[in-house]
Amino acid sequence: MQPLIYIDNAATSYPKPEPVYAFMDQFFRRCGVNPGRSGYDLCIEAGHLVDETRRALAAFFGGRHAERLVFGYNSTDALNLAIFGLLGPGDHAVTTTLEHNSVLRPLYHLSRDQGVEVDYVPFDARGFVDPEAIRARLRPNTRLVAVNHGSNVIGTVQPIADIGRLCRERGVPLLVDASQTAGKLAIDVEAMHVDVLVFTGHKSLFGPTGIGGMYVGEHVEIRHTRAGGTGVRSAQRDHLAEYPHRLEYGTPNLHGIAGLHAGLEWLQARGVASVHEHEMALIRRLRDGLRAIGGVTLYCQDDLTDHIGVLVFTVDAMDPADVGTMLDVDYSIATRTGLHCAPLVHEQIGTADRRGAVRFSVGPFNTEAHIDTAIGAVREIAGTRRAASARTAS
Length: 394
Ligand SMILES: Cc1ncc(COP(=O)(O)O)c(C=O)c1O
Hints:
Layout: E1 5-6, H1 18-31, H2 41-60, E2 69-72, H3 75-86, E3 92-96, H4 101-114, E4 117-121, H5 131-137, E5 142-148, H6 160-170, E6 174-177, E7 196-200, E8 212-216, H7 254-270, H8 272-291, E9 296-298, E10 310-315, H9 320-331, E11 333-334, E12 336-338, H10 343-349, E13 357-361, H11 368-393
Parallel strand pairs: 1-11, 3-4, 3-5, 5-6, 6-7
Antiparallel strand pairs: 2-8, 7-8, 9-10, 10-13, 12-13
Helix pairs in contact: 1-7, 2-7, 3-4, 5-6, 8-11, 9-11
The structure holds pyridoxal-5'-phosphate.
């Protein structure tokens, strides 16, 4: 059995840096109590870890107020809290066709159940959204612009600072889904005029699954759509209005926060830019190798500036799921196939009707050898297919 070559880091980063495993194990054993609920030493220490991680992450995203960095389970959780807490009957929202279902579905439910109107701005042939196209859709009742930062399908990175500037001019809150970019690219919520920045902990921040959250700027009011225990002012009937309690409910995922703490430390020691450069060098090599193979089509990969290390492709006359299975079974290469929870992207690039595409997404532990093996594997798969088609035709 060949060792697994994992090229599915957009789903979740794997493996995690060694200190993440070590710190989670050690912290869970030594200090796995309920943080912030009591006054004994271990409880205070657990609370400190939560506060320290909150401070470190807020600073990492350029946020001035650490308490406005709130933890939840993942991006989906934070996106639901933010979208349902910002929009209501009579409102209009603008989003893009690049979005993940964790944005599309809450918006869909709001339009189905509360009559919220939603405009979807398409991306251009290179995979980018024109900020002016967003401006053109703003209405007097637009209460939210929700934009994907880095696509989990085609890998393009949107001009958030330009979009942020125009949203700020018009007084419309900007929500950015940074699931794929948090930890890959420098993000500064102040300079980019981002009102709500959503992140997930288990991708490029190298934490475990089940931890994520958002940074909420000072100019937005997210209504409560949940309520519960916070460990603070228990006699109060309604949920606390102040941050971070405002948007945190129940016992936090302490072990997830411990892993995220160690992941962020590892990333900062190694350097965000250096990890990104490594990944982009690999994705360029992969792109160049794949586009030289007959019968392989790439999508939005011609110019890899403003990109992350994510690439999708199809092989002529083959179901992407079959390509993924062959890569897995015959070559021990892990990828993701299908629609990648982003159906509108596939509609726009023309792969929705052929059951999506195959996605490679690289991480810091991938090597040139992994990429060369992947290129060789796709070459063989596409070659076998072409030979079979030629036999059928003759
Ligand atoms: C762009 C984007 N948004 C949101 C999500 C949802 O992240 P999570 O599953 O951690 O909630 C993902 C996950 O793949 C994503 O790629």
